[in-house]
Amino acid sequence: xxxxxxxxxxxxxxxxxxxxxxxxxxxxxxxxxxxxxxxxxxxxxxxxxxxxxxxxxxxxxxxxxxxxxxxxxxxxxxxxxxxxxxxxxxxxxxxxxxxxxxxxxxxxxxxxxxxxxxxxxxxxxxxxxxxxxxxxxxxxxxxxxxxxxxxxxxxxxxxxxxxxxxxxxxxxxxxxxxxxxxxxxxxxxxxxxxxxxxxxxxxxxxxxxxxxxxxxxxxxxxxxxxxxxxxxxxxxxxxxxxxxxxxxxxxxxxxxxxxxxxxxxxxxxxxxxxxxxxxxxxxxxxxxxxxxxxxxxxxxxxxxxxxxxxxxxxxxxxxxxxxxxxxxxxxxxxxxxxxxxxxxxxxxxxxxxxxxxxxxxxxxxxxxxxxxxxxxxxxxxxxxxxxxxxxxxxx
Length: 395
Known about the structure:
CATH architecture of the largest domain: 3-Layer(aba) Sandwich
Oligomer: single chain
CATH class of the largest domain: Alpha Beta
Distance between the termini: 24 Å
Order of helices and strands: EHEEEEHEHEHEHEHEHEEHEHEHEHHH
């Protein structure tokens, strides 16, 4: 399937920087998070092809759906639904080779978010290989058993490894010689809009105050008993939950008259919703899936000017909890007390404290640091047999 993005001109920069082929388990148009922040910045001076996991349809031939978004070329393989696992891998291999030929990609680096993509990219010769390990995917519900093996292979091939937080770095640092932590960052100006917004979105406007809100994916990482307990303990509080429900039964969500599931919202809409909250929440369960998470929404809530209450997620406790930027509580009674304290505090002092912290981080600064490491990796890779300037190998 061709589109206006089907034949993009090669970069006109001289010398042209390598293109980026980004292999992702997350969809570009799902939730705007780390891959989107980094790849949109990466695309400012090089071509970026965001190659997603396949979607399946009955009775079709394998094909590519190619569109443009935010300067990034989004590539979605579309496969027939009757292929077995081996056939799916081979179909993705052929489609990726087709993309490389069609777009005249002759020099590129591979940027992995999912180790599973090694299965159909191990024949490629890239100028460098980056593994941005933003989560411990093997701990997630439904993770394929082979994922651990694939990650080991990716770590063996990678030129540069990044982690989405300090805890994940500490767990992986012994496995690669060139690994660096890059915790969640923030577009402070975007979320700072919430401080001036006074008009509620229509679906939030009828809800009385106080409002306690969360935005993000609602999945196995949520502490549903905690949410239910808070809703039951304080029926006068309105709990606003924004985001898609994924990998869990919607029927398992707490069902109270003061818990409101308003669905997915675009990145551009989020400041308008957060503006109307009295407290921003990080009600994560403490389980295998959350052991190494570094929630991007922590600094985003702070940039919006809201007090934050979180469960004791390690990368929230360090640094936010220890620096008094976020209140930490794990059971219903202490969580309710923390929310009450948050609503009673001096907001001006809290915002000054938060802003001083946020001045030290931004997605632009994060990308500049990552870009420097990528350039070093490209330089180190020159002449290395397995990461030589790219050309498709036979077979």
